[in-house]
Design the sequence.
C-alpha cells in the first residue's frame, strides 16, 4: 500500500538547517559584529591629520584597515544597499545571493554532498562566483554595484590615510598586559 501525499514521520533524514546550525550562524554573526569598533573612535576629529609621507600613509592604511575592518565593511555594504534602492528586483536578487553565500560557503561546517559525491570548497567558491556574476549581469545593475564598490573603496582609503593610528592599539595592549599580569 502506498502513502502518496503523506508526511513522513521518521526523522532519519537530516534537515537542511537544524537548530544547532542556526544558533552557530547567529553566534558567528554576533561575533563578527562584535569586532566592529565604536563609530565615535573611528571618526574622532582629534585623530584626523594628513600623513607626512608615503611610508606613513602606507602604515596608516595597514593599521586602520586591520583595526576598522568591520566598520569599513558596514560602510561599503550600506553604499551597495543605497545604490540598489532604485532597483528593487536587483536588491531582492542580491539579498538572496547573500543568503546563499552565507549558508553554502561561510557558515557551512561540513562539506556539501550531492549524490554521495563530496564537493570541495574551491568548487563551491567558483560556482557561487559564476552564479553571482551572471545574475548581476542579468539584473542590469553591474555599473551601480561597481560604482558603489569604487566609492566605498575610495572613502575607506581616504579615511585609512587620514586617521592617525597612535591610539588604536593602546586598548588592546592594555587588555593583553592586564591578562598577562593576572
Sequence:
Amino acid at each position: 500500500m502506498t502513502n502518496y501525499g503523506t508526511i513522513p514521520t521518521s526523522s532519519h533524514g537530516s534537515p537542511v538547517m537544524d537548530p544547532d546550525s542556526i544558533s552557530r550562524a547567529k553566534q558567528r554573526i554576533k561575533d563578527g559584529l562584535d569586532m566592529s569598533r565604536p563609530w565615535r573612535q573611528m571618526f574622532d576629529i582629534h585623530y584626523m591629520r594628513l600623513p607626512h609621507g608615503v611610508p606613513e600613509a602606507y602604515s596608516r592604511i595597514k593599521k586602520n584597515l586591520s583595526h576598522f575592518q568591520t566598520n569599513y565593511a558596514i560602510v561599503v555594504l550600506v553604499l551597495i544597499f543605497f545604490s540598489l534602492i532604485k532597483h528593487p528586483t536587483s536588491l531582492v536578487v542580491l539579498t538572496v545571493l547573500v543568503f546563499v553565500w552565507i549558508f553554502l560557503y561561510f557558515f557551512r561546517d561540513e562539506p556539501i554532498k550531492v549524490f554521495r559525491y563530496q564537493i570541495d570548497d574551491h568548487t563551491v567558491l567558483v560556482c557561487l562566483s559564476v552564479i553571482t556574476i551572471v545574475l548581476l549581469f542579468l539584473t542590469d545593475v553591474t555599473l551601480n554595484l561597481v560604482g558603489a564598490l569604487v566609492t566605498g573603496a575610495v572613502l575607506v582609503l581616504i579615511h585609512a590615510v587620514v586617521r592617525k593610528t597612535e591610539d588604536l592599539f593602546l586598548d588592546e595592549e592594555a587588555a593583553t598586559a592586564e591578562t598577562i599580569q593576572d
